[in-house]
Structures are given as C-alpha cells and as structure tokens.
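Structure in, sequence out. Go:
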C-alpha cells in the first residue's frame, strides 16, 4: 500500500502532467518566474482579443444590432475575462492564501466568485455555439457571381473566422476568385463558399475547446477537494489526474489545428492557457508535497 505521507516523485504520478512538472519543485525561483511570466502574457493577450472582437463586431453587425447579438459577438472577450478570473481564484486557493484563511468565510467567497466565472464561461461557450450555427443559417446571394459585384457598397467580405475586408473597386479582384457567396442571418458581411466550410470546421473546434476547458476546470475542482481531504493515494485522485492529462492532449491538438490554419494568435493563446493551468497544476503538486511532509512530521512526533 502506498504511504500517503511519502513525498511524491515523478514515477508516483504515472502518465500525468504532474510527472513532467514535479522536477520544477526543486527550482522554486525558476517555477515562480515562469508562472508569473505566463500570467502576464495572458493579461496582455486579453487585450488583443478585445480588439479582435471589436473589429469583427464593427464589420459583421449593423449599427442597430440587438444587445444579444453584440454580446454573442464579444463571446471571446467574455470568455477570456472569466478564465482570467478563474485562474486568479485558483492561484489564491492553491498557492497565495495561507491555510489559516480557509477557516473563515474565504472558501465560500472563492466558490461564489468561481461560480460567477463558470456562468460567464458557459455563456461564452453558448456564444461559440451560436456563432457556429450562424454558418448553417445562411442564404446564397443568387444575383452575385463575382465579389466585385459588391464593390463600394459598404459591404465586407469575411476572409477567415476573425478577419474582414471592405469590398472596394481597388481590392475586390484580390479578395476572392469564387463565384458562390453566402450571407449569414442578421449579418451585413458576406463570405465565399470556401470560407463557409472553413468557418463550420473551425467553429466545431471552438466549441470542443470550450467544452474541454470546462471539463479540465471541473476536474481541478475535484482534485482540490480530494487533496483538501488529504486523500493523496486515492484511486479517484489518480483517475482525475490521468483524465486531465488526456483532455490537455485534446487542447494541445486544438492549438495545433489553429496554428496550421494560420490562426497564430489563437494557437499562441491556446498554449498560453495550457501553461497557465499547468502553473495551477504545479501549485497543486507543491501543496501535496508540503502537506505530505507535514503529515510525516506529525506521524514521527506521535511515535516519538
């Protein structure tokens, strides 16, 4: 039987992310520098997403668009803000706050704030779903066979899932050489046939990514509860850690898909968030190590 007070090593974690991160515990200064560098990069990246969502909103929606559609257009910004809040709260719970803080009202406050974040994240996942469904609620522009037919009418052509270009006489010949064009319901921009199929595929990646991240966060919540009960050798904890590793692999795959489809900002963001949550994983590993040492010292004192 595994000794629950024994200090964990790489082998004891099996095929999990923690097995890769544990060696960093011997270099705490390096680990902290990496962690806070990643956190800073996530905050900076958040600013880029606000700008992208704003530019897409200006190009895709009319000025009198209802608030529901505007909020849907800003689903990525809402998502990023909620995830930043969630990482901050996990950092407080798993690293920054002393043990004495959890004997007061703070745990309930942290849980309430996390619920707010999860609600926002759930809404953002709903927004991704709505945006993807828009690619299935399209009407063909039967009277348009060349993108130049729309030149100088204040109409934008969707170039990919985030970029748009206003169609003018000067640029229309370089925007698209296709003859079939579509318009999503409620939008003023248009897309060609290739972009329609591309948008549907990338939308599915967005949805799967949002769902998998929610699962990973849920598994971290379970791991925190198990560790709080000092059940470090339980089978449930091992299963949770192995499941998280599998879902991290899905997230890495999604990041690679964005990269190879030239969405470099999305790919960069994906890997930043993975590293951000690995910082939380490192906090959990350090917390476990410290707690095992405390339990071992208490056991030795009782037998002395």
């Amino acid at each position: 039987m595994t000794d629950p007070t024994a200090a964990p090593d790489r082998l004891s974690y099996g095929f999990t992310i923690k097995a890769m991160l544990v060696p960093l515990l011997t270099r705490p200064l390096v680990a902290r520098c990496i962690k806070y560098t990643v956190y800073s990069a996530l905050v900076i990246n958040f600013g880029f997403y606000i700008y992208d969502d704003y530019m897409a909103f200006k190009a895709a929606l009319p000025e009198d668009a209802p608030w529901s559609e505007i909020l849907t257009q800003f689903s990525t910004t809402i998502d990023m803000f909620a995830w930043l809040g969630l990482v901050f709260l996990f950092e407080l719970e798993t690293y920054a706050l002393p043990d004495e803080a959890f004997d007061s009202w703070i745990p309930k406050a942290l849980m309430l704030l996390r619920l707010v974040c999860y609600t926002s994240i759930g809404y953002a996942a709903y927004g991704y779903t709505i945006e993807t469904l828009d690619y299935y609620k399209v009407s063909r522009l039967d009277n348009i066979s060349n993108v130049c037919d729309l030149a100088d009418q204040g109409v934008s052509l969707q170039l990919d899932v985030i970029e748009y270009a206003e169609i003018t006489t000067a640029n229309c010949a370089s925007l698209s050489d296709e003859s079939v064009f579509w318009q999503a319901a409620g939008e003023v921009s248009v897309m060609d046939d290739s972009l329609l199929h591309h948008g549907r595929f990338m939308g599915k990646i967005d949805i799967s990514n949002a769902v998998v991240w929610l699962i990973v966060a849920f598994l971290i919540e379970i791991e925190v509860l198990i560790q709080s009960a000092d059940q470090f050798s339980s089978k449930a904890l091992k299963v949770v850690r192995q499941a998280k590793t599998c879902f991290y692999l899905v997230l890495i795959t999604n990041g690679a898909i964005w990269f190879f489809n030239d969405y470099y900002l999305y790919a960069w963001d994906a890997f930043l968030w993975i590293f951000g949550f690995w910082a939380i994983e490192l906090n959990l590993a350090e917390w476990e190590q410290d707690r095992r040492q405390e339990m071992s010292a208490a056991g030795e004192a009782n037998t002395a």
